[in-house]
Amino acid sequence: MLKGKAHKFGDNISTDHIAPGRLFHLRTNLPELAKHVLEDADPDFVKKMKTGDFVVGGKNFGLGSSREHAPTIIKLAGVNAVLAKSFARIFFRNAINVGLPVLVCDTDKIDAGDELEVDLSSGTVKNLTKNITINFNPLPDAMVKILNDGGLVEHFKKHGDFDLG
Amino acid sequence: MGKTIAEKILSSHSGKDARMGDIVIASVDVVAVQDGTGPLAIQQLQKLGMEKVFNPQKSILFIDHAAPSPRAELSNAHQILREFSKKTGAVLSEINEGVCHQRLIESFVKPGDILVGADSHTCTSGALGAFATGMGSTDIAIAMATGKTWFRVPETFKIEVRGDFPKGVYPKDLILHIIGLIGADGATYKALEFCGPTIEKMTMSGRFTLSNMAVEAGAKTGLIASDDITREFLKEEEREEDFSLIKADEDAEYEQIYQIDASVLEPVISVPHAVDNTRLVKEVEGTKVDQVFIGTCTNGRLEDLRVAAEILKGRKRHPNVRLIVTPASKEVYLEALKEGLLEVFVEAGASVTAPGCGACVGIHGGILGDGEICVATQNRNFEGRMGNPKGFIYLVSPATAAATAIKGEIVDPREFL
Questions:
Q1: Where do the domains of chain B lie, and which CATH numbers do they carry?
Q2: CB of B369 within 8 A of CB of B137?
Q3: pLDDT tier, A160 (very low <50, low <70, confident <90, very high otherwise)
Q4: Residue A81: what pLDDT?
Q5: Does B192 touch chain A (CB under 8 A)?
Q6: Within an 8 Å CB–CB cutoff, is residue A104 touching chain B?
Q7: What CA–CA distance (Å, rounded) separates A60 from B22?
Q8: Which of A64, A68, B110, B322 could form a disulfide with B242 if both were Cys (CB 3.0 to 4.6 A apart)?
Q9: Domain range spanning residue A15?
Q10: Predicted-complex ipTM score
């Protein structure tokens, strides 16, 4: 069970918002890059967030570049999971590969500051502030396997190959 | 039921009857990283104890995003790629060689291939009839070491185009129009297949522009059947033997079909800060501009530079506009040099830079100041894309970019043709 506060973002949060090109030189220093995560969408995000909080987006979260650094620094910053109405393809796959849960659900029912409780196994988000339960779409089985192993590197270490069947 | 191009290629590479929605593990033919994503991929391979590549000739490390390096941190990142190349035999594409996607189509990818690259515009090679798609560093690391990866077989949107382009309208205007139509997330997880009489007549250069931007509609790849024009392109690249025919079956199943008449199109522009935020150029005419950038994997090819040079020849950039021209590769640069195009640009007041991605990705060589407006031939206009979240980016064809550089404000290029 994951529990934390919601930080709300709009539609089309791009990888340039999450890990901008002007900080390209920090890509080989991820802890430093993580201090700037989502800075170009909300300059105060890193100051406001606490370990275990949730990033809550609108539609097409993570569009743009293939930079895996984007989900990696969201995770490194201590975010529990990203919730959005939809995700861009590469970001979604990258998030699973680095072990960051990404959940597709109706985020209109979540406001900034709401306390959330996410149950990955039952596929539900409880909005404790609003006292409502929101269901999220289950991940494809192949992705559940990778996520449960802790990401693609761990998956490969454990199985020595893809074991998605 | 017949198969789409995506289903055919994923079937031949997985040994299965791959149909949309299936999960398959497929062999890959070409694997690429660039200097922004490569060091992390190598780090992942080190974690796995798998510092090797499945096929050194088809595993390519491109130094193009920060080339030549503007900072020590990036020079150090480049060292990681050079050392890995020495250790494994993977091909190193050095700072002078050009943008990865341009290099991949010139020298590495062939029809029917699967190309995976740690860069979202890897879909560019789809115009060769290859299943080409972008992924993150970890996926690419494992593909590079093992020669395989997993895919969900995508549904396909068929984009059928007929009609001749009117004067002043180019493939870039067409793809911007298509993205405006589909939306930035309208084709998420899907493959696009561009076809129809207009595509059949289009040069490879124009086709690459279309496929390059498939990802801007959310798509996994943008495919085009191979034909005599593909063969001719490969012949010019001195690798005609790489040609093979690949096309969809007549009775292939498509999730959606779009029909577009190119003959009624006008010059199109994407306005800040979304690629699907499209307008006609004439609707935003008069907007004052600080910088014009012509280049990138979208529109930095010889044909693009010819169009821009035709407009700029004998003219000067507006005194308030900086003009930056970046050929997409060494090959393009040399040809442009021989044809006298670079002379035209320099005479017109342009900064002609070394091949690379720098300005487009906001790393170096054209970073915007606060509140500045840039008209560019690239594929993205996101907030912060050109190195400053306080900048504003408009996306256009090379013709519109060149005309705008002269006028100092956004202008329909047809008055300069």
A1: 5-260 (3.30.499.10), 269-416 (3.30.499.10)
A2: no
A3: very high
A4: 97
A5: no
A6: no
A7: 23
A8: B110
A9: 2-137
A10: 0.96
